[in-house]
Prior knowledge:
The chain is built from 3 helices and 4 strands; from the N terminus they run βαβααββ.
Amino acid sequence: MMTLDLHPVFRNNRDIEVAMRQFLFRASHAGVPVAEIIPGKGSGRLRARVLAFLDQQHIRKLYVRREVDAQNSGRVLVYFS
């Protein structure tokens, strides 16, 4: 499973978008079944931003489904075909 931890870049909006975009392209091309994005628990604003990014139409084409981990709300799982 590939993992992207957003803790080092959480303060810079552009860096967050670039990191997530590059990560999703790498994960989809690597053929991994599941990738993990870690926005952290915190206030939930970064998680909401990650989910909004993943719900964009052009990004949605890269994966099959996404979900917030039921056991750990600071982790978003992205499933590929």
